[in-house]
Write a structure and sequence with these properties.
Blueprint lengths: L15 E5 L6 H11 L7 H6 L2 E3 L2 E2 L3 H10 L10 E8 L2 E11 L6 E9 L8 H15 L4 E4 L6 H9 L15
Parallel strand pairs: 6-7
Antiparallel strand pairs: 1-4, 2-3, 4-5, 5-6
Helix pairs in contact: 1-3
Length: 179
């Protein structure tokens, strides 16, 4: 789905396993990892709409609790529909989390990559690329033709990563505070 740039680091390959999160006992781990790894630049309109964030630059103080509730509503789930949580596992540790929504009955089947978060200690080591490749493979196996996502306006590293993987801007989302 686009060209990949080689990692600048030459560290050994990591043995990370990607899979859908079906184990309810790992929900807290996934929520804590996600909350610990996102800064204010990650905030986009869906974080504001869902209550994850209080403003475009401030997370809700109970972000891990909000994420735990959200993830709990998605695990376990029918693998072929709705929204699912995917994780990257390094040994028993969760080092990557993604939330993917499926729209397989649309005229042109698509997925929405609602979130993708990688442990900051592993960034630059192809974990995000391998995770995205795995998600794309899962989507293609179900006949999906498009993948959409949104990203915080200041999340520039992510924007470059997504552009390298074939994503292009198709709209602009704006917000007005009415309070």
């Amino acid at each position: 789905m686009g060209r990949r740039r080689a990692s600048r680091r030459t560290e050994e390959a990591l043995d990370i396993r990607f899979d859908w999160l079906d184990d309810e006992t790992r929900i807290d781990d996934a929520a804590r990892m996600f909350a610990a790894e996102v800064g204010p630049s990650y905030i986009s309109h869906s974080e504001l709409q869902s209550g994850r964030a209080l403003s475009p630059s401030e997370w809700a103080p109970d972000l891990a609790v909000v994420l735990r509730e959200e993830i709990a509503g998605l695990v376990p789930r029918d693998r072929n529909s709705g929204a699912r949580v995917a994780c990257g596992f390094l040994g028993s540790d969760i080092v990557a989390v993604a939330i993917v929504s499926w729209e397989l009955t649309a005229r042109i089947p698509f997925v929405v990559l609602e979130d993708i978060v990688v442990d900051s200690k592993l960034r630059g080591r192809q974990v995000g690329q391998n995770f995205l490749d795995w998600i794309f493979g899962q989507a293609r196996a179900h006949g999906v033709k498009r993948c959409f996502l949104e990203s915080g306006k200041d999340n520039h590293d992510a924007h470059h990563f997504f552009a390298r993987n074939g994503f292009a801007q198709v709209s602009i989302v704006m917000m007005s505070d009415l309070a």
